């Protein structure tokens, strides 16, 4: 195969092939008498592997390290690994399309939540917390509105394998939401040393799981979680997390 042919077969550009040669990722093949490169099946397999690794987010230096570890393996092993990679991609695509179909159905029927699209686990949690605008719903609390935003963010950033467990833990506390939100809303104009801060912290700590007992240092995540809270509200949440940590020891 010529360079244009192998590039088209694998789905890259000839320029990319030349770049991989310069990087040392793809060895230079033998050349014909006329000086043109002559690529074979092993070159195509290696080029496909480079493309796949790059698509997975690896930098080219990291790709080179992986390929170096692969030296000496039989062609069938490399092909089997490529096949397994493609199978995993297909599974991810099937799952995404299944979820997309559900979202499309909800959207066409006018049932897609304002916070959506969200995972089924978060959708169930938000349903437990109630819909904003419903008489007596805790979701109308200012603190609840902020919670929905944070939960929607966590729904995106928490790894999929941990998300279901995390949302289930939050659902366990959902039944206490009205009283907790009322306590925290009442601290909006309070001072950090208000006696109600300790009361709210104790009530919150009583329903939080042990995993919530973490210390969040200033800056970064702290700015995101506590930045728009009133001083007394932030003090109550921080104290609750410390109480949970002490309980879990």
From TrEMBL:
PROSITE patterns: HTH_MERR_2 (PS50937). Keywords: Coiled coil, DNA-binding. Transmembrane segments: none annotated. Residues 1-69 form the HTH merR-type domain. It comes from the Bacteria. Residues 72-106 form a coiled coil. This is MerR family transcriptional regulator.
